[in-house]
Amino acid sequence: MKNKLSQIKLVLVILLVSLLAVAIVMPRLFVYLLVISETIGVLISLELLLFDKRGTTSKIAWILTIHLIPYGGIALFLFLGRNPARRRLGVNQLQEQTKIKAVVNELMVASDAWQTEVPAFAHYNQVLSGQGVISGNQINVLTNGQATYDSILSAINRAEHHVHMFFFIFKEEEIGRKIIDLLIRKATEGVEVRFAADSLGTLKFSFETVKRMEAAGIEVLAYDPVNTIFTASHLNWRNHRKTVVIDGKIGFTGGINVGDEYLSISDRFDFWRDTHLKIEGPLVNYLQESFLYDWMYMKNQAEASAPFISEGGRHVYFAAEAVGDAAGQIIYGGPYDRERVVRESFLNFISGAKESVRIAMPYFVPDEESLAVLRRMALNGIKVQVLMPGKGDRGISFNGSNHFIKTMVEAGAEVYHYQEDAFLHCKIMIVDDCYATIGTTNFDVRSFRLNHELSVFLTKADQAVAHLVNDFEADLVVSKPVTLASLAERPLITKIREQLSSLFAPIL
């Protein structure tokens, strides 16, 4: 469960000290090494320009990093900048993931849940990803952390067969300990509990807690741990999903991780604004598929899928039945996929707007095409509203987001900053006040290219969409509109900081 980042830090410190020693004792050798470093940097830059398929913004950011930071820029590129699409997964991982997806597709095609008459964006998303629109659901919006945790804890407490849980961040704070204690109790009662988290998001997760969970019968796994210098290239490719599935019938996903800050217990912010979803019905089968897809990756064993897709198993782990009339579509993808399906689904969604596009995002660092699509909608007379934090949790992301405000306002979009004593972390888009998407995906290059993400597109969920619209309008009341005049009044140092952040935010 634990990373060994100290090894990487030690190697980097040794390299830095060695270079300083060479510079002092053997300055001529240092110059030779500098020439070699720059030559390697030029070769990497040429490879990026000529053969790499990432966006221009990311290419420029890496080329600047490589050449502005001697030696260190190349090291950073080797650790963080390699193209994730070139990573080759193991045979067991690929085979078992394929088996899971095939069984779910078979079950859904055979059911009456797969809806054929869908909005245009959902049709395009289905062609793109293979994920259909599923009806027969009850979908509830959970506004902020308290409502979300109460609902998750209540559902876990009623679990009879299994609890599957994955979070990007899971902190051993008050709410984290409460969830762990409940999982342990359910496991001792005979409920199957599978717990996983992104290894970088659980840096402070203690070995003692893992041992206590495993002793109770909980299976605990970590996503892409960085255990040696040789696995450091995985460091920048994180699993940002948040998925909870209970008894194959109830599912949760959205923007909320596990930590006290999501309950507005924080020294930095007075209030943490976030949104999550509770789903009941056949759509949960795709949440389960997403969890098990990641589980197969982490297990990396032959026949790891067998318990879940056997004739008996598939009807236990994919047991959701129709409970309502809401319809939705779950799209998930990641850096190892050939296509950026989540990003393309976002653009399909926005492009289908006829009247309005509302966006609430903590990180707004679009690539060139995504920015162009939004600006085009605004220029065409579509009402585009973008709600962003008034105070960021990470300086480079916050300043990078602010860099794109002016071009959006010039195109006619309305941009707002949420109240400065709070943090806006929800990931929501609403089109024409009729359709919405909510999930783990931010509107930034990291989510589009470097993270494993999941988003739920609500194609027929009037109550849930109305809830999101009401929340969005309530958020606007406590937000401040950004104007060209207010942008012009910013200090020069702020403008420079935003410009520089916009260059480097896409690679971090």
- Per CATH, the superfamily of the largest domain is Endonuclease Chain A
What Rg, in angstroms, do the CA atoms define? 23 Å
Model regions low in confidence, pLDDT < 50 over at least 5 residues: none
Number of strands: 20
Distance between the termini: 23 Å
Name of the CATH class of the largest domain: Alpha Beta
Domain count, please report it.
3
Alpha plus pi helix count: 20
How much strand? 15-25%
Q: Would you tell me the structural class of the helices and strands? A: alpha/beta
Q: What sort of overall outline do the alpha carbons produce when their principal axes are compared?
A: globular
Average pLDDT works out at: 89
CATH topology of the largest domain: Endonuclease, Chain A
Measured as a percent range, the helix fraction is: 40-55%
Report the sheet with the most strands, covering strand number, pairing sense and barrel closure: 16 strands, mixed
Secondary-structure arrangement, i.e. CATH architecture of the largest domain = 2-Layer Sandwich
Report what the structure shows:
By secondary structure, the protein is α/β, with parallel strands linked by helices. The protein folds into 3 domains: 5-81, no CATH class; 91-119 and 135-326, Endonuclease, Chain A (2-Layer Sandwich), CATH 3.30.870.10; 341-507, 2-Layer Sandwich (Endonuclease, Chain A). It has 20 helices and 20 strands. The chain has helices at residues 5-25, 27-51, 56-68, 72-81, 91-110, 120-129, 144-157, 174-188, 207-215, 284-299, 306-309, 314-317, 341-351, 368-379, 395-403, 405-410, 445-450, 462-477, 484-488, 492-504; strands at residues 114-115, 133-143, 162-167, 192-198, 219-223, 243-246, 250-254, 271-273, 275-280, 326-333, 356-360, 364-365, 383-388, 414-417, 422-424, 428-431, 435-439, 443-444, 453-460, 480-481. Strand 16 (428-431) and strand 17 form a beta hairpin. The two termini are 23 Å apart. The model has no long low-confidence stretch (mean pLDDT 89). Residues 235-262, 420-447 form the PLD phosphodiesterase domain. This is Cardiolipin synthase. InterPro entries: Cardiolipin_synthase (IPR022924), PLD-like_dom (IPR025202), PLipase_D/transphosphatidylase (IPR001736). It comes from Vagococcus allomyrinae.
